[in-house]
Each structure stands twice: as C-alpha cells, then as structure tokens.
C-alpha cells in the first residue's frame, strides 16, 4: 500500500476546514431527519409490523429475490400494505436448527426437505396438518440431484457407478448440515436399490462414494463455489437448478450430466405458527406462500431451474427441464421423516458408514 506523503501544517489547515463544514451540514441534516421521524410516530412500528422473514435453504437466493420483487408491488396494489420481506439462506439442516433454537424468528420457512418442516411441526412451531394448508401438499416446486462435470467430461461420468472410479473426486455438501448433501446420499442409495440392488450393495456403494468425496461443504452454494471457482474435484452432486446456473455461467468449463435415475426432491414451505402471534403478520405470511402457487410465480420457478408443481407450466420448459426418471422417497423409506431417521438419525446409516471410514 503506497503511503501519502505528510502535509505541511498550512496544507493540513486548508484540508481541515472543508471537513468541518461537511460535518456541520451532516449534523443539521441528521437533526432534521430526527425531527421528521418524530413527526411521523407510526413509521417505524408499521415498518416492523409489515415485515416477514423467510428462512430458506442454500440455493434459493436468486429465486426468492425475483419472487419477492414481483409479490411486493402486487400485494401492495391489492391490500394497500407495503411488505418488507427479509431472506435468510444457508444449508437446510443448519437453517432448521436456527429456527428450532429461536435464533431466527422465521415467519415462513422454505426448506429443502419435507422432513425439515416435519421436525418443526413435531416441536410445536408449526401446526400439525401443515401440508394440507397449501396446494400440492405445500410443495411449490420439485427438483433432483444431477452431475456437473468439467467440459468434455474427461472422466466419462454418466451414471452413479462412474462416481466411484479410482481417479474420480466428488464434491457434495455435508449431509449433516445440507439438504443437498442428504439428497445426494438418498439418491445414491436409491440408484442401487431401485435398479434391483440389495440393501447391502447400496450400503457398500454409498460407503465407497463417501470415500471419494474431496470436499464436503456446509451448504450447496459453497460446494458449488469450490467446484466452479476453486476447481476442486471432477464431479459435483448438485441440485438441478444449481447445475443449470453454474453451467450457464461457465459454458466453456462445465457441463451438466443427467444420470439415468435420481431422486424426486420435494422442497416444502410453511408458515411458522409459533412466530405469528400478530394476526396481520400471519395474514402477510399466508398470502406470500399462497402466491408461490400462482401461475406468475410458477413461471418464475421454472425460469430459475426449479420444476413447477403446475404441470402445464412445467411442460412449457422441457427444453431446460427435460422429463426424467425420478424415484419418490417411498421407494427407499416410508416417507421423508422415516428417511431422516433411518439415514441421518443417531446411529443411522450415515453414522454407520462414516464410522466404517473412520470419519
């Protein structure tokens, strides 16, 4: 860093005077602003009352920024209320914990897994039967896990068995903190069992796959940054929408590969009853989530690489969102809650496989 030569005293004096004048003007402006606020006593309370917080999972930043931008003026025109929608994004498991411990007072949650919201419901933060409160069992869009590879696919990665070739390094988020990470494990397991393999074969495959993981970040976005920017690994197990975004931004460096089979991911949404003691705020939260199922919102969902629950709108985007063979969670567990307990609970499948690897 180049240092500025010291000024002589005369120069110092000349330079001090304008800053004093500026400070005086700033003081006058701040005083006037303070008086203006005092003359509008309801400004700050109303702003706070019209605020909702959406605690969401890692890759949804761009989607919800666009949805918020569209919803806020529409809602203002309809109701006369200007909403302030705040967004929080991180690994879905980590976001779940922050709502559970109260460090984030979510008005609504839009998390990676139905089981994340079921956990909030079991803890009394969200009413039972929450899935019936919104269309499509409160799942506004679906997704899946796909592969992102280097340009030209030099390692020849086309299917799940290719991920455990001796020279392949895998990037996927940590399943203990990330919905993407959990889905990668579930998709890998189901890629074996839904094609005739046994539970023992699935366990052996996933154990080997975990051994090939070069980086296991806390969330999907940081995993993607490691793969695309730091150039770690040969293949990334990514949300489809993240894969589309990364490849579009790095056309000369990356390619998207759809495996022959993968999991049907069902990110879900709900308003958080325990945090909505103000009826007006509850009204805003419910209107916001209902908006996600409108045609306008579903169109934006598709544009950002998620699969809209509206089949007609999904059909308009088959060029970017092609038909896929996706197995439901019921192909490998009773439901999402059962899958969480079986695979990611204490002494579950992940713990057992990790212990075998000494991790």
Automatic annotation (TrEMBL):
Keywords: Periplasm, Signal, Transport
Pfam family, one: SBP_bac_11
GO molecular function: molecular carrier activity
GO biological process, one term: sulfate transmembrane transport
Top-level taxon of origin: Bacteria
Subcellular location: Periplasm
SUPFAM superfamilies xref list: Periplasmic binding protein-like II
Cell cycle in keyword set: no
Major subcellular site: periplasm
Cellular component GO terms, alphabetical: periplasmic space
UniProt cross-references to PANTHER family, sorted A to Z: SULFATE-BINDING PROTEIN
Similarity comment: Belongs to the prokaryotic sulfate-binding protein family.
Protein name in UniProt: Sulfate ABC transporter, periplasmic protein
Organism: Mycobacterium conspicuum
